Amino acid sequence: MTTTRLFVAASTLTALALTVASATVDLRAAQAKNASEGIYTKAQAERGLTLYDTSCASCHELGKFKGTEFANAWTDKPLIDLHTAVVSMPMDAPGSMKPAEYAEIIAYFLSINGYPAGQTELDGSEASIKAITLDAKK
Fold first, then answer.
1. What is the dihedral of CA 44, 101, 131, 128, to 10 degrees?
2. Which residue among 11, 19, 23, 62 has the highest number of C-beta atoms inside a 10 angstrom radius?
3. What residues does 132 pair with on adjacent strands?
4. Where are the beta strands (DSSP E) in 8-79?
5. Are 99 and 39 in contact, with CB atoms under 8 Å apart?
6. What pTM value is reported for the model?
């Protein structure tokens, strides 16, 4: 190969790599959501209340999960941080609930903190939750 062909090939590969990297960043940005956009449904939060009452309330007072204490702990952080804390429960059997049940409890916490409900349920998968930020309420 001549020097010119090597230069053209290297330039083409560099341009392709930059295009792919840019598209990946754009795709991630497009998938990112904020909690204030309505990331759970009202029905999901209602199920979360029932789960909280039956699985969490005996050990945890609700005040820890709403108001200023909740806002100070979680605002402007990835929802996965809250998810990790919730999935570490119950203390005697961490991770023993279904992903959808943990999502329902998180939906309940969001609802009692004034985050709006939306049309789509919060998906309990880590991949979906990682794309959400607990932004300040609008």
1. -100
2. 62
3. 33
4. 33-34, 77-78
5. no
6. 0.77
